[in-house]
Amino acid sequence: MKIAGIEITNPDKLIFPDAGITKLEMVQYYEEISPKMLPFLKNRPLTLHRFPDGVDSDGFYQKKASDYFPDFVKTVTVETEDGSNTQVICNSKRSLVYLANQGTVGFHTWLSTKDYLHKPDKAIFDLDPPKDSFQQVKEAAKITGDFFRKKGLEPNLMTSGKNGFHVWYSVRRTKTFDQIRPELKELAQELEAEHPELFTTAVRKNQREGKIFIDYLRNAYGQTSVCPYSLRPTQTASIAKPLEWKDLKNIKSADAFKLRDFMG
After folding, report:
1. Residue 34 host element (H or E)
2. How far apart are CA 131 and CA 138, in angstroms?
3. What's the CA gap between 187 and 64, in Å, rounded?
């Protein structure tokens, strides 16, 4: 069977065993979601979260593009502490389907694009809750959105597909990661100071005292964030789903959106 010109190998392999979801179904999901997902992937270096034997087995994160990837899978050379490496760029449905056929469950993007790798065009805050506190993180997401709007920003909201929410907004590409990060840290600390009973910026889990961790640390060169509409390696094949702010009150859990629900 071919999808977007790609021969699907081992289509009946279970990628999400508990949900009974095969590789073919996963690839079909990425084919169908590609018009919505590709704008978020465009021109951004990727880290692939691959599970060739399914999410019950050990997966791995892949930053460096494999030598056997075909030419239509675009790449970009990025500077690293050890020199450089070549990372994947996914700008087409064909590339997305190919990478899914390689067992890529999750797609994680840089916060900058290939033409300005050191200058982000988005800032992201991951609201990471303690266990079994979804109502608390919903409240935190609403407060965070209101906080950024008061700052004159236009925040966007997404479920993480696991436990919490991501709140992000676009920034002009005039500053490097190192230049903008202190500003983002200051925003997180201001939010914490305004709502000390709800938020914390403590990195160590044993210092968070049951509060919502405002994770601004991924706003750094070479760091990534899960791409909107990406699947997550959960037993239910949950999706990182963008939301309208008005819909926040109706969400029952951060993993409420699942592949099977989307595919009908």
Report:
1. helix 23-41
2. 13
3. 33
**Cα 220 from Cα 62, distance rounded (Å):** 18
What are the pLDDT digits (tens) for 158-184?
A: 999 999 999 999 999 999 999 999 999
DSSP three-state, residue 82? coil
Q: Provide the strand spans (E) within the chain.
A: 2-3, 6-7, 14-16, 21-22, 46-50, 60-62, 74-80, 83-89, 104-110, 122-128, 156-159, 165-170, 199-200, 212-215, 224-226, 242-243
**Three-class DSSP labels, 89-128:** ECCCHHHHHHHHHCCEEEEEEECCCHHHCCCCCEEEEEEE
- Alpha helix positions (H), 109-198: 134-150, 177-194
- C-alpha–C-alpha distance, residues 188 and 10, integer Å: 46
User: Which residues is 200 bridged to in the sheet?
Assistant: 213
pLDDT for 30-70, tens place per residue? Answer: 999 999 999 999 999 999 999 999 999 999 999 999 999 99
